[in-house]
Design a protein that fits this description.
Mean pLDDT: 80
Radius of gyration: 30 Å
CATH class of one domain: Alpha Beta
CATH superfamily of one domain: Ribonuclease Inhibitor
CATH architecture of one domain: Alpha-Beta Horseshoe
Largest sheet: 22 strands, mixed
């Protein structure tokens, strides 16, 4: 190791070493540490990005200088460019902690996090037979999952998520009888999930999302994985039905199988009282029938449920009134389905709701006034349905709302001035309805944060003289209305504007050349009006 340039004042017993060194280089690791055979934890925390590209192999030489090493953590900043070799440890913070093996009873991990390490996992890891946890995520490691992992008989947690591993999931993973956590998400794994994985009775977390895995889920998985808490297989190519045996998963907290090819009925989750996230979106679930949403009845028992995601399926039927009993819900998304009927007034009971997305269904009837009681609602999407009646003025009570989309319905009447009370609004879309009357001055007085205003394809009248306050507008769509008057010179303050659509109105007068000074403009349509001058050249 060469001459020491820095030394730590180490306690002789080395039972609680917490000294921290700054800017310590590889050559400056104290010999006193490396000579101690009792070291069981070594921690590297990178403070700044190195400029040299390196691989993982030299780290292994450090690992095996400690006969009792049970925990190695190498932590790096997110989005860094670290790839490890011998000189990478310059500009690293090194803290060493030693524990007597008789008292060191907690988890003993290897963690190499957010460093973008390159290369394959060295086979030398197979000799770490005391290793209980290995966390090597958010890196650029590649190759297949090494067979040496099959020798890690004490391993309880393997986390390799967000790397570039490819190939199939090896069968030997199913032989690791102590395994509780298996996280291989965000890689390039393909093929079927080995059946033996579903027989790991100690498994609590199974995280395999964002791969190219295929095949079906075994019908018995709810019985063979009784301790399962987290089950995330989203963004794969899995098919078949969801097993009815999930009813047996009493410890389940997260069940996400979004963006797959699952079909058929959704089973009951009524026994999962700790379930807080149920993600079923982007599948082929449901059959467009009245009973497709009956499974929601069982969710009344899931008192912790916060996220229910059912978008992009084939669910038919009506929104059940009892879903108002799910008072813990924060996100309810059921868009792009075949749901019909009305929005139940019981929706007001969802006091914690932050997002309600029901767009692109076949909902009819009026928007219930009770929706105005959702005081913490942040996003509301009811667009592309067949809703009728007037826009309820009580929507102005939703003062935390940032996005309101009621477009493509059959709404009529005027735009309620109460919408001007929503001071946090970023997006307002009321397009493709039958709205009439002038744009309320309260809309033009919304905070400057508003970046998208779409009132196109209505019967709106009046002028554009009050638009000066909305200086941060990026998208302004007012086409296909009955607007009149001239384009005011105040438009020159809209320096962030990218899209301007005022076509098919009754606008008149000269087109001021100041529009050509709006350098952010990408799309402009002024056609089918009564302008008397030429369109500026930039158009």
């Amino acid at each position: 190791m060469g001459q020491m340039a820095y030394e730590l004042d180490l306690p002789s017993e080395l039972e609680s070493v917490h000294q921290v060194t700054e800017q310590l280089s590889y050559e400056e690791v104290p010999i006193a540490i490396l000579d101690r055979q009792s070291i069981s934890r070594l921690r590297y925390h990178r403070l700044q990005d190195p400029t040299e590209s390196m691989d993982l192999q030299p780290f292994v030489q450090i690992y095996f200088m400690f006969s009792s090493l049970r925990a190695i953590m190498i932590l790096g900043a997110q989005n860094s460019s670290l790839t490890v070799t011998k000189t990478v440890i310059s500009s690293i913070l090194i803290a060493a902690s030693a524990y007597d093996s008789r008292t060191f009873l907690t988890k003993q991990p290897i963690a190499l996090l957010r460093n973008k390490l390159k290369g394959n996992i060295p086979v030398e890891f197979a000799s770490l037979n005391k290793l209980e946890e290995m966390h090597v995520f958010f890196n650029n490691l590649s190759g297949e999952i090494p067979s040496c992992f099959g020798n890690l008989s004490s391993i309880r947690a393997i986390s390799l998520l967000a790397n570039n591993f490819h190939g199939t999931m090896p069968d030997f993973l199913g032989n690791l009888g102590n395994l509780e956590v298996l996280e291989l998400a965000q890689n390039n794994l393909s093929g079927v999930i080995p059946a033996s994985i579903f027989n790991l009775s100690s498994l609590r977390n199974l995280e395999l999302s964002i791969n190219q895995l295929q095949g079906r889920l075994p019908s018995s998985m709810g019985f063979t994985l009784p301790r399962l808490e987290v089950f995330n297989l989203g963004a794969n190519q899995l098919t078949g039905k969801l097993p009815a045996s999930v009813l047996n998963l009493t410890n389940l907290q997260l069940f996400a199988v979004d963006t797959n090819w699952f079909s058929g009925e959704v089973p009951s989750f009524g026994s999962s009282k700790y379930l807080y996230w149920l993600g079923l979106e982007e599948n082929y679930l449901g059959n467009g029938k009245l009973d497709d949403l009956l499974f929601m009845s069982s969710l009344q028992n899931c008192s912790a449920l916060q996220l229910l995601q059912l978008d992009d399926n084939r669910f038919g039927g009506v929104i059940p009134r009892y879903f108002g009993n799910m008072s813990s819900l924060q996100y309810l998304t059921m868009s792009r389905n075949l749901i019909h009927g009305t929005i139940p007034v019981e929706i007001s009971q969802l006091h914690s709701l932050q997002e309600l997305s029901l767009w692109k269904n076949h909902l009819t009837g009026e928007i219930p006034d009770s929706i105005g009681k959702l005081e913490v609602l942040i996003e509301l999407y009811l667009n592309e349905n067949q809703l009728s009646g007037k826009i309820p003025s009580c929507l102005g009570n939703l003062t935390m709302l940032t996005k309101l989309n009621l477009g493509a319905n059959n709404l009529h009447g005027s735009i309620p001035s109460s919408l001007g009370k929503i001071k946090s609004l970023l997006l307002l879309n009321l397009s493709r309805n039958h709205l009439s009357g002038d744009i309320p001055k309260e809309i033009w007085q919304l905070p400057e944060a508003l970046f998208q205003l779409d009132l196109s394809s209505n019967h709106i009248t009046g002028s554009l003289n009050n638009i000066i306050r909305l200086k941060n507008l990026v998208y302004l769509r007012l086409s296909n209305n009955n607007l009149s008057g001239e384009i005011p010179s105040s438009f020159k303050t809209l320096t962030s504007l990218k899209e301007l659509y005022v076509n098919h109105n009754d606008l008149q007068g000269a087109i001021s050349p100041f529009l050509s000074s709006l350098t952010s403009l990408e799309f402009v349509d002024l056609s089918h009006n009564k302008f008397v001058s030429k369109i500026p050249e930039f158009c």
